Amino acid sequence: MTPDNIYIFRFGRERLDNRLIIRYSHKWTGRQRINEIDLRLHKQKHPRIFENESELLNYLEGHLLKHEAKVRAREKEKQKEHEHEVSDSASK
After folding, report:
1. Do 31 and 63 belong together in one domain?
2. Are 47 and 38 in contact (CB under 8 A)?
3. Same domain for 39 and 72?
4. Residue 86 sits in which domain range?
5. pLDDT tens digits for range 2-34
6. How far apart are CA 87 and CA 83, in angstroms?
7. CA separation, residue 82 to residues 36, 47, 68 (Å)
8. Is residue 1 predicted with pLDDT exceeding 60?
9. pTM of the prediction?
10. What b/e string do you get for 64-73 counting C-beta neighbours within 10 Å, with b at 16 or more?
11. Is residue 26 helix, strand or coil?
12. How many CA atoms lie within 13 A of 24 on its CB side?
């Protein structure tokens, strides 16, 4: 058996605190085989571990949908506040 090889991708806005760690090995044909994918967001002590790319993509898709819903809710709230301010200034 050959030892695992590791790719580390760092990403994020502040000091690259998010990491995607991919552990892989090589098959006897020379092709790469992914053994494990770790996703560490915001300096987590216990990362989310995925066995393959499809599990990771399913998690990220769900995470993205939740994030987009939060962003839309914030935008609606800001829009309501702005409309309230405009109506107050027009009545003066």
Report:
1. no
2. yes
3. no
4. 53-91
5. 567 999 988 887 777 788 899 999 888 989 888
6. 6
7. 48, 40, 21
8. no
9. 0.63
10. eeeeeeeeee
11. strand
12. 14
